[in-house]
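Reference record
================
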Amino acid sequence: MEDLGHKLRQYMKSGTPAERRIAKYFSEHLNELPFETASSVADRLELSPMTVGRFLRSLGYQGLDGIKVHLKENAAPVTLHLSNVLEQLQKDALEGRPIAGQIVEQVEMLQHLYNLTGQSQWLDAVAASLSSSEVFVATHLSLAGLGRHFCDRLEFARDHVQFLDGANGSYIELLGRPANNALLVIIDSPRFMTSRLLARSARRAGYKVLLITSQYTEWAPEFAHSTLSLPPLRVSGRDNLSAMTALLECLASAIIQAAGEEAENRIRKIEELEGMFSYTPVR
């Protein structure tokens, strides 16, 4: 990065007028270059794409994609001074900027999640996800994307993972058969009106139930064997999608890590199969 910066400074001092303009633009907009093309840069500077292309070659890149790869590979780690950031966000929130209050709340949610990962219920959830004969995941249709993604991630660690969308109205896939030491993961939300009934029915049928829900879900101790909870939103919104996404991603990562060598072997096999089937030639 320092070498690139040095080259740009040299062109800003001694380059042609066009080179000086491009070098100045690159220096001031490095963070935006991943979203640019040679044509878009040329349009902004009222130059030809060929002129931008020649300048990139003079820097040692075949095109803008080359400089994008360089920026990605040499990106400096971001150092966050969280106390200063939070102080400014809290000040902005008090001055009437709602987005600042929402960001503060999400940072607090992440801190809560980090603390949760060291507690016994988290370790129990990871262990149950690996030791159960099967894992079923259920949630409201509005969160189906999260549920399916969580299932996809669990498949890196184990077999027999199934998402239940409840579209058939019966959950026959779950309740029409013996439990056989299987686990039901319920991703709760205010819209998932049947989550309590589903948890109760599954527990009575012999399933282990892991409930992911709000901290103040009163029925959780009665119908769930284990609960991972998030504080309710204060600022706005019914579903805390960002915090729920972070929780599910961290949980999946912990399960994959706990699976160890078995997960490594499965990931290699999945990649091998994807390579085989992703580019199947037309018959």
Remarks:
- The CA atoms of residues 55 and 119 lie 55 Å apart.
